[in-house]
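Supplementary Methods, section 5.1.

A reviewer requested that the exact input to the structure prediction be made available. We therefore reproduce it here, unchanged from the version used in the analyses.
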Amino acid sequence: MPAPERADLIAPDRPSLIGPLDTIRVNVFDVSNLGGEFQVDASGRIAMPLIGTIDAGGKTSEELASSIEQALRRHYVRNPDVTVNIRSSVSQVVTVEGQVTEPGLYPVTNQMSLMRAIASAKGMTEFGSDRQVVILRTVNQRRMIGLYDVTAIRRGVYEDPPIYANDIIIVGDLPQRRLFRDIIAVSPLLLTPLIAVLQ
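The structure derived from this sequence is encoded token-by-token as follows.
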């Protein structure tokens, strides 16, 4: 198997948006006392020295840096050079629930995909259904749902879909396996062989 090309190792860039309760680091070149680490409040704002409160929610790091530069110019700072980095994000998460080992909220990275999200939740339980994996997503204020077959993704039938912040992944249940486990639990009580057909 040939080695991957450099382009194969880089995921397409997705904008990381700043959200409530995220922690960001602001650096103002040559004016260290104006920068620092800030937590975005619940309304999506940060309070900074000299410029006061500024909207950060829903902006990329570059957009927020530009807004801070404009605000500093209004307060007589000449040619401010600002960089913003997201230190920790609680708003860029995906919810993984259903038949996974560790349901919960997981951070979304630029390379997050359905298979990686399931792996983050330590994989499916013994009752998880490969063919009943649902992604819930809001697009343009409309709720959308996608049904995916993890087995088909593993076989390369179609691409592993990308996962975005605020997606909800639900891994369905295989009632046949649960029924079989229940049957096994009572099998010592059976006096004749029992055969079950599972799909």
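Residues 189-199 have pLDDT under 50 and may be disordered. These observations are discussed further in the main text.
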